[in-house]
């Protein structure tokens, strides 16, 4: 470990402001923990909800739930991973021993965040776990939460995506009930939407429609063989039904509650509504996009309480299924890692920028404004990857 007692960390101050602060180095406080020297930490669309002041996050929170690096220290209870191992952690903090973990629902672990089902690093309401947009991060229940990777630096930009967006995109497709050969519409071509579209392609979709308004993101979807639909150039549902010759089998909401409606005004239920309209009777909807039980910046009183107006009657009439929630990353990360190692998957096409930790405040602003093609930003807090 470095000789200095402090490290650099990306810290949320107030809406639209993060700064680089010196923070104390994390120390082991339990035998099951490990300390990781972070080689890469990614910025996520989920961080933007906090960055924009659209959550209860308070100043002083160190961001970063998508983390990988090298183990520098382990507690006495850690036996499966060791100092020197290259590892990536699911964004979920899970204990591996509660009922939900036992059943594979690690996003809903009841043992890591008292009174709540689910924990994460550097995220509001997700427990006391410091984020990894810092030079070092502490990992609880390290044997359970660390996934080992081949030594070296190969595929760094692919492996970091195992912390969240590759499994999350895959999960979005799984919870829509998708089967090989079916058609699917993905709303949102941010990193999660692009990973959902890529997953559907890997899993043998007959057609993948991707809806957004950001030209670079639609172009990225087209490049992996999907059909781009710009929702500002006409009704997206009508365009998909026309191109597909009817409704699609499945749809994925990879946008969440901060969805843009007409003239960029927010309409929190617009994407759910579009999914209900575009999915064929008895089809399914997967919702990895985030919805919250309270939103301090909501456009109306009901959505401020997380109560959204959707056509539930239509959903029922069509017999649609709907799957929601945080991704249980651990359910998929081992298999997706192996697809990367074997060369079957290369999700890093979504990465737009590699930066030093000092550049993070600027990158947050540009990613938030979707400027200059900022789609997926990788921070290298201990210097560039060779
Ligand atoms: N379930 C999980 O475990 C999980 C994990 C990671 C992220 N998320 C959530 O997934 C969502 C997407 O994450 P991201 O990193 O891709 O975020 P992002 O903000 O980069 O992407 C969202 C995209 O949606 C587009 N969009 C906005 N309104 C739209 C509309 N009406 N129709 C179609 N597209 C529209 C935006 O232009 C943007 O490109 C966020 O809500 C994030 O919090 C969930
Ligand atoms: Zn994330």
Automatic annotation (TrEMBL):
Signal sequence, start to end: none
Gene3D superfamilies listed in its UniProt record: Medium-chain alcohol dehydrogenases, catalytic domain (3.90.180.10), NAD(P)-binding Rossmann-like Domain (3.40.50.720)
GO MF annotation terms: oxidoreductase activity; zinc ion binding
Designated name of the protein: GroES-like protein
Matches recorded under InterPro entries: ADH-like_C, ADH-like_N, ADH_Zn_CS, GroES-like_sf, NAD(P)-bd_dom_sf
Organism superkingdom: Eukaryota
Domain Alcohol dehydrogenase-like C-terminal: 191-260
SUPFAM superfamilies the record matches: GroES-like, NAD(P)-binding Rossmann-fold domains
Cofactor dependency: Zn(2+)
Protein source organism: Glarea lozoyensis (strain ATCC 20868 / MF5171)
Stretches assigned to the Alcohol dehydrogenase-like N-terminal domain: 31-143
Pfam families: ADH_N (PF08240), ADH_zinc_N (PF00107)
Entry similarity comment: Belongs to the zinc-containing alcohol dehydrogenase family.
Keywords: Metal-binding, NAD, Oxidoreductase, Zinc
């Amino acid at each position: 470990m470095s000789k200095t007692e402090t490290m650099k960390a990306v810290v949320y101050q107030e809406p639209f402001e993060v700064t680089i602060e010196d923070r104390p180095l994390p120390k082991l406080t339990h035998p099951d923990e490990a300390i990781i020297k972070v080689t890469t930490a990614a910025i996520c669309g989920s961080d933007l909800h906090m960055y924009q002041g659209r959550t209860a996050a308070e100043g002083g929170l160190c961001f970063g739930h998508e983390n990988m690096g090298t183990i520098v220290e382990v507690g006495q209870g850690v036996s499966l991973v060791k100092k020197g191992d290259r590892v990536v952690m699911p964004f979920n903090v899970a204990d591996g021993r509660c009922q939900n973990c036992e059943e594979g629902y690690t996003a809903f672990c009841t043992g890591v965040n008292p009174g709540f089902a689910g924990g994460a690093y550097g995220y509001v309401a997700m427990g006391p776990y410091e984020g990894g947009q810092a030079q070092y991060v502490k990992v609880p229940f390290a044997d359970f939460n660390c996934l080992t990777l081949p030594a070296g630096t190969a595929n760094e930009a692919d492996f970091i995506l195992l912390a969240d967006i590759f499994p999350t995109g895959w999960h979005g497709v799984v919870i829509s009930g998708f089967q090989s050969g079916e058609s699917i519409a993905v709303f949102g071509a941010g990193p999660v939407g692009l990973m959902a579209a890529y997953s559907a392609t890997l899993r043998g979709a007959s057609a993948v429609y991707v809806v957004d308004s950001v030209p670079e993101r639609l172009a990225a979807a087209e490049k992996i063989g999907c059909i781009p639909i710009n929702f500002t150039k006409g009704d997206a549902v009508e365009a998909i039904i026309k191109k597909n010759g009817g409704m699609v089998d499945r749809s994925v909401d990879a946008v969440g509650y901060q969805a843009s409606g007409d003239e960029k005004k927010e309409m929190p239920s617009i994407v759910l509504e579009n999914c209900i309209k575009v999915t064929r009777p008895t089809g399914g909807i997967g919702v990895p996009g985030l919805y919250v039980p309270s939103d301090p910046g909501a456009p109306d009183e009901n959505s401020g309480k997380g109560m959204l107006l959707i056509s539930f009657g239509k959903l029922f009439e069509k017999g649609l299924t709907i799957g929601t929630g945080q991704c249980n990353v651990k359910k998929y990360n081992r298999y997706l890692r192996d697809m990367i190692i074997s060369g079957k998957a290369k999700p890093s096409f979504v990465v737009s920028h590699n930066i030093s930790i000092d550049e993070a405040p600027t990158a947050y602003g540009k990613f938030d404004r979707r400027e200059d093609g900022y789609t997926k930003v990788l921070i290298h807090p201990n210097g560039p990857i060779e």
